[in-house]
Amino acid sequence: MASWRRVVFGLILVLCFSGESIVSMAAIKAAYWPSWTNSYRPPSSIDTNYFTHLYYAFLEMDPLTFKLRISPNESVLLSEFTAGIKQRDPRVKTLVSIGGGGSNSTAFALMASSKPSRKIFIDSTVEVARKFGLHGLDLDWEFPANPNEMASLAKLFFEWRGAIEAEAYSSRRPRLLLTAAVYFSPKFFLSDTPRSYPSKAIKYHLDWVNAMCFDYRGSWDTSKTGAHAALYDPKSNISTSYGIDAWVRSGVPQSKLVMGLPLYGRTWKLKDPNVHGIGAPAVGVGPGDTGVLTYTEVVQFKSANNGTVVYDRTTVSTYLYAGDSWVGYDDAQSTVGKIRFAITRHIRGYFFWAVSYDQDWEISRQASEAWGHH
């Protein structure tokens, strides 16, 4: 028995000093909650049975002071978010996401370029997290524009992790989680300015990254329909399978990779209603605001227009068409297919953009059941 105890103790030491723990390796079933959806999907209404982590989206950084900007209304929303989730299920971790697709990338670059401005930003984020009872912080900088900005990002991650470790030690509280939302691939191979994320800094300083595995196709190309979150693309590397595998090849551990799943679709107007497959000729965006429908709106559109639904095995995606309207999206079947892929890749879990867009928790529930206890 003594030898077994020594083996177990040794394993515990290895886990501790490798930066991982048995608890931290639990599966992640996450989702972002857009604060502007509060009127129809307040935090208290979220069915927390299907999630382990929920993100408040978004807080902005003041481009002049580099501190987080919180209006009186934002303060109320943040308080309602943490209180509402805690009341539903205190085991669910809450994080705040900073930035977002509409944020000022140039301001992030300026903040990250010097140690004093990074410290101001970091201190502000920790202060906000503790004030509102959050469990963690998430950076959604879309996107560092060149190799220099990626190098600044690595420094930011290093100093941020050091700061939250020190704060946890001095305050005797659990350490704040630190995550980031990132491009679907570690390398921006489609860009005129090729650059790559600092994989080593991610490996050592972040708890995990949320790879945004969606928006591969959309309103910026109205010439043909597309699966905007294709798991596979036989014609290109613009796919979730390529992105996830590339992240692993870059040196980011599978235990720090979380796969993004969309709860919305992108729409096109077909050139010919009789030609309606993926890649069919199109002449513009279809229904929805700028060619986007939430999953709830997709369900409603299908019902109102007697749409025809097709599951595409090649891309592991779903689309529907009605007249000259075409919508590419993920339903429960394609979502479960992607989750099975994620399980085979032994990555940490998945996240949804965005929790407010589901229809009666249909996809959230089936995703959670498909992942099970992996």
Automatic annotation (TrEMBL):
Please name the GO terms that the record assigns under molecular function.
chitin binding; chitinase activity
Can you list the GO cellular component terms from the UniProt entry? extracellular region
Give GO BP annotations, semicolon-separated.
Answer: carbohydrate metabolic process; chitin catabolic process
Occurrences of domain GH18 (ranges): 27-374
Give the top-rank taxon of the lineage listed in the UniProt record for this protein.
Answer: Eukaryota
Signal peptide coordinates: 1-18
InterPro entries, per database record: Chitinase_II/V-like_cat, Chitinase_insertion_sf, GH, Glyco_hydro18_cat, Glycosyl_Hydrlase_18
Q: Name one Pfam family in it.
A: Glyco_hydro_18
Q: Which SUPFAM superfamilies match?
A: (Trans)glycosidases, Chitinase insertion domain
Which terms are listed as keywords in the entry?
Glycoprotein, Glycosidase, Hydrolase, Signal
What the record says about family reads: Belongs to the glycosyl hydrolase 18 family. Chitinase class V subfamily.
For this entry, the protein name equals GH18 domain-containing protein
